[in-house]
Specification:
Chains A, B: This is 3-isopropylmalate dehydrogenase. The structure is a homodimer of 357-residue chains. Chain A has 357 residues and is α/β, with parallel strands linked by helices. Chain A is 40% helix and 22% strand. Chain A has 2 domains: 185 residues, Isopropylmalate Dehydrogenase (3-Layer(aba) Sandwich), CATH 3.40.718; 129 residues, Isopropylmalate Dehydrogenase, CATH 3.40.718.10. The two termini of chain A are 25 Å apart. Chains A and B meet through strand 7, helix 7, helix 8 and helix 9 of A and strand 7, helix 7, helix 8 and helix 9 of B. Bound molecules: 3-isopropylmalic acid (2 copies).
């Protein structure tokens, strides 16, 4: 039976980098006989232009029907002044929420070939390999009530709500423990339990889930300390599990430790490992259309798709190996270029990965 | 008329480092005829031991009556299992809130003498001098409702509320702009306006306040991007203003960029510049009582007190100069020690600053 892959090129550099990733996906499809059928639709700003909304109902229905989704990136300055429900990121938040993609995996991996690109000292980051597991469909991103209003004294005020239920925490904690089991067997749960009620429940439920994972070493850390420790000694971490907002902040901080955010993929999974896959970086409107964006994070997102949604480990590994070979050959897009390497554009980089595969 | 300074030695290394800072404060008092009268009380774990609560009513009354407060640090593992209202940090949160200390100034300054201590490359952090202005008495730290409860289906859930009013945002924005005016005239306001209602109001009010500061260059940044940019290129920042929770996270991240959190003081000010002054680092229970803690952050907190609460710029500068001289002499506590320097303990470091003053 064929598998349906829905592709969202998205905004900014999205279409360029997705085009290269699709080449790699199609080659893998053929070579490993994966039986994938690709179709395309729009999300974010591009969807607003086409449908008048950042996520059309028909698009959502197609996304529900698909077996996996590949996304470039969404957003751009031309949509910044739209009303909130029409803005590109609302399409992203809605699809995450409607598809129940609660498990966001964000690796922060330092490629040995790019070790010099980090702003941290080599000895601090050499060999860095962290996985941030971020809760993606709950917490303050989606909590209600949330409102802006005028008080009786004429003053404006606004508020958001940060809620977590036991089952939401339990399922993301399980993802964290499962991932830790496949890796270094260390899980650090990050919260702010000395201040927040939701964090106290978070910590309690993570402790309960831990009973089923005696082989995984669990620690807890406050989010402020985690933000510090990521700078001070990032290699102390293996897997980090945290809530939606803390995960947003810490995963971006962690990815920047590698100095090559153009290399980092991500997966957002539902309870059945159906997933949406996208690069960690954004839509980079300033370089869109110039053919210079780095397609490797999107190509590696394809590899994550094969691994997590389809269990095609051989094909997934082959793509990762091809990327590594291309780096060994000295090919670099501008964002990861350094003295002595050969600077190439988006398409040449994609072609090189295809050739290496 | 004499000025009343209330001193809280606090927990862990607090008493040791405060003892050295008090020596410096008393010398400055004499030398510059500041007319300070010092008195002592307890906050945090030490207060729990003495009064059965981390902030006694009599203590709060004395704090209200004082002209400024010097604090060591609070917290320790022996109080971790107390009920939340009895825990040391609740004393800290309560005194901040009750005294209206909404303006938290957290400098992240790289001392040239300690440049090697950072985990970042020298060219990334050399000359780093950021001031984080954190809102300290509002937001999710104090928002209500906040609750943990059992739902009808038997599941537990918990939630917190993140509220901000126009006046709360306005007053902290003013602090940010005022500080920027005294420094590099650049203010970056950090929020998550693409997701949070409270952040949208935050951004709108900061824009309004900006009209009164045409000489200050204002920018806005999302908190996830700010966490990244602090690692990538921290010197792009001059003053950063942000809410209570984001400020907690980003100020810790920023302070760690310097590699010497044992050097960083902080001030928490009310609307009349009455303030509580404390080091950015914590109570470090693991090294308490050993006489090896670094007292310089607390000594520099005294300097901030003289500057912000009493306008005694000459005395404040003299203390900063004395600290710099002691570093030039090669004296280092263990946390900032490097090859070729002389390792000294808490008391010897304090004495050296006194001698240099
Ligand atoms: C665009 C934005 C809403 C989104 C988020 O905050 O989740 C982005 O920062 C991310 O991390 O994917
Ligand atoms: C101890 C804790 C409640 C406190 C905070 O989160 O404000 C601390 O981390 C700080 O930054 O002063």
């Amino acid at each position: 039976m064929s598998k349906q892959i829905l592709v969202f090129p998205g905004d900014g550099i999205g279409p360029e980098i997705v085009a290269e990733a699709v080449k790699v996906l199609e080659l893998a499809n053929e070579k490993y006989q994966l039986g994938f059928e690709l179709s395309y639709d729009e999300l974010g700003g591009a969807a607003y232009e086409k449908y008048g909304t950042p996520l059309a109902d028909e698009t959502l229905a197609r996304a529900r029907a698909a077996d996996a989704i590949l996304l470039g990136a969404v957003g751009g300055p031309q949509w910044d002044n739209l009303d909130r429900p029409l803005r590109p990121e609302m399409g992203l938040l809605k699809i995450r929420s409607q598809l129940g993609l609660f498990g966001n995996l964000r690796p922060a991996l330092l490629y040995p070939q790019l070790a010099g690109a980090s702003s941290l000292k080599p000895e601090i980051v050499a060999g860095l390999d962290i996985l941030i597991v971020r809760e993606l469909t709950g917490g303050i991103y989606f909590g209600s009530p949330r409102e802006s209003r005028v008080l009786e004294n004429g003053e404006r005020m606004a508020f958001d709500t940060l809620p977590y239920s036991e089952s939401e925490i339990r399922r993301i904690a399980k993802v964290g423990f499962d991932m830790a089991r496949l890796r270094g067997k260390k899980l650090c749960s990050v919260d702010k339990a000395n201040v927040l009620e939701s964090s106290r429940l978070w910590r309690a439920v993570v402790e309960e889930v831990a009973k089923d994972y005696p082989d995984v070493e669990l620690s807890h850390m406050y989010v402020d300390n985690a933000a510090m420790q990521l700078v001070r000694a990032p290699k102390q971490f293996d897997v980090v599990v945290t809530d939606n907002m803390f995960g947003d902040i810490l995963s971006d901080e962690a990815s920047m430790l590698t100095g090559s955010i153009g290399m980092l993929p991500s997966a957002s999974l539902d309870a059945n490992n159906k997933g949406m896959y996208e690069p960690c970086h954004g839509s980079a409107p300033d370089i869109a259309g110039k053919g210079i964006a780095n397609p490797l994070a999107t190509i590696l997102s394809v590899s994550m798709m094969l691994r997590y949604s389809f269990g095609q480990l051989e094909a997934a590994n082959a793509i990762e190996q091809a990327v590594s070979n291309v780096l060994d050959q000295g090919l670099r897009t501008g964002d990861i270029w350094s003295e002595g390497c050969q600077k190439v554009g988006t398409r040449a980089m994609g072609d090189a990965v295809v050739a290496a595969l």
